Amino acid sequence: MWVLKAAIVSGLLLPPTLANRLYFPPVYHNGSVEVENFSVPGNLDGFKMKTPANTTSFDFWYFDAFSRNTSAAINIVFFNTGDFAANPHPLTVQISGTFDNGTQFFGEALASEGAFITNDESGITGNWLGSGTSFYGTNLEKPNVEYVVKLNSPSIGVRGTFKLKSRAPPHYPCNPNVDGLNTLLLPHLHWSNAVPDAQANIDLTINGTEFKVTDGVGYHDKNWGDASVITSPKYWDWGHASLGPYSLVWYDLLDYNNTEHVYAYISKNGNLMHNNCAEKAVEVRQWGANATYPPTSGIATNEGLTARFDLGGGQAFVANLTKEVIIHDQIVYARALGSVTGGIEGQEQYQGRGAYEEYLYGLLYGKS
């Protein structure tokens, strides 16, 4: 049974109508920024603030995909954020990942002409003008959800398409796609997950090298908030996996009071099975010779992780992920790809693949 958890927080609750289209100029907003604090009808994946970011706010759309059998993996993020102080404005797109031989790539394209975002009954469209990048997603409240990212960015040498066909229903941290509920992971850090699992088809050229994935694993979510995403959490483990009939997503965060916050999601054959944020709803721990909790080192020094989902009634779903390739590593923030074995304890076990990330900034540097 879904537990509908309302937060005792105050903030902006937008009216239950969609503000169809916004244009963001390529400048930092001079003043305070209000963000959406509760789920709004039809806006799970829409814009969560109505201005460009100021220097302490953010709203971004994250996409990833990876091969089921090679090291090919890619992350694409459309940012409206004040967290990149070196950039002249908050609108940028970052692309990173690994080719099938494990070689890493990275590129960033600024939206020098601003950004248009449209969210209406047909779905969402984002166009980061001047970057050569855009995305489109169909209505999340209708079946057969699809997303397409189009890339034609000479400045970073990327051209082609990234396509997702969803195979799991969207959700918020503690609940399914229901109106009027809390969207917080931690104070000032919000999350929604439009596509927890998808069939991914990618056809790109990156700096002259072909990057293709057919029938891969894909994913799409977004984060937003009215304080820096860099300093809001002390630590997090996040990831997603596809194995057999199951789609998994986990978030395990530590705040600056050293309190653990967990968010668990499982669907089976495209139907929601577990969406919970109760204590021990999921416990995620890195493993390997150097693994500790809280960790003292990053993904590079550990061998993988175990995610244990408490299903209630004495049942648990356990997923064990073994790291195979590091996709991106900035010491305080790293992503990796690996093989997964898991299932409900005492029942059939399945094989699959997953991607995960670890964020260590607060553990290493404190809340600066």
From TrEMBL:
Residues annotated as domain Diels-Alderase N-terminal: 18-224
Annotated coiled-coil segments of the chain: none
Record has Lipid biosynthesis as a keyword: no
UniProtKB keywords: Signal
Signal peptide extent: 1-19
InterPro entries the record matches: AsqO/PenF-like_C (IPR057722), DA_N (IPR056402)
Record domain AsqO/PenF-like C-terminal: where: 231-358
Keyword Signal on entry: yes
Name used for this protein in its record: Hydroxyneurosporene synthase
Phylogenetic placement of the source organism: Eukaryota, Fungi, Dikarya, Ascomycota, Pezizomycotina
